[in-house]
Amino acid sequence: MSRAVKGTIVIDGQELTVSNPNKLLWPEMGITKAMFLERLAVLSPWLLKHCQDRLLTTIRFPDGVDGKSFYQKNCPSPAPPFVETVTRDSISYVKLASLPVLLWLGNLACLEYHASFDRVSDPEHPTEWVLDLDPTLEEEPRIMEAALLVGDLLRSLGINSVPKTSGATGVQIIVPLVKDLTFDELRRIGEFVGAFLADKHPRLFTIERLKKNRGDLIYIDYLQHYQGKTIIAPYSPRARRAASVSTPLHWDEVRRNVAITDYHLLNIDERLQKEGDLLDRVAPQSLRSILDFISGSGARR
């Protein structure tokens, strides 16, 4: 058995221990822990932005993506003094608000970063609305076609949105919001949109919750967007063999049928330096008029 290797680095005035820097975390991509920490540092301005003020759940892979994994909600122990937590429902969540905290988690082989839909500072009013397109098939060649149909429908309703790869198999449609609707009100809009698409494209979409009853259809998950539930954070790596990263897209890229695996830890920095955060290009908007329309339609029926 090889001797464990440890070293220390100083980031923003904080000293961190790095263990086993040469351990392969993504063997097929040749990505070691040291490389992963370097990539996290590159991603940090964008990843931190989308995780701060959220409850954080990580997925840890101590032996890399081919090994066993477990979810981590409670702050790992022992934690260095610079790690702050926020407690909800007896769980002490890590506040992911600085590069040292991110790299500390990375050294613990936290490969995925899932953020709550609700904000710590205001859990009642979401600042975005998300439709999660979840394929039943492990490989779904129609996923970009499906995302485009959703985007086109939202655009016809006057709703601006940003498509984002999950980094795994699905695509999420994100709508930045002003804080004037509740999660329950947004669920009503999601049900309306999902039911309409499933009715119009019955060979492509479903709103059936149970996977065993979906056949090969793509599930429009409007229920996941709720207080206490999580989404893979924008710019989070995924524990997939391609080291893919959850990446916001241009709608033109969706039309070109880009692959989810096109954006990964080894090339995401070039994209971010060129494009910046595509989620910043859509201004927060109100969906109050859409909710009023749905409510009026229901009353007339």
Automatic annotation (TrEMBL):
Q: Would you say which domain of life the source belongs to?
A: Bacteria
Q: Which residues form the DNA ligase D polymerase domain?
A: 32-278
- Classification via Pfam families: LigD_Prim-Pol
InterPro entries from the xrefs? LigD_pol_dom (IPR014145), NHEJ_LigD (IPR052171)
Q: Which PANTHER family match?
A: BIFUNCTIONAL NON-HOMOLOGOUS END JOINING PROTEIN LIGD
Instruction: Quote the protein name from its UniProt record.
Output: DNA polymerase domain-containing protein
Mind giving the lineage of the organism this protein is from?
Bacteria, Bacillati, Bacillota, Bacilli, Bacillales
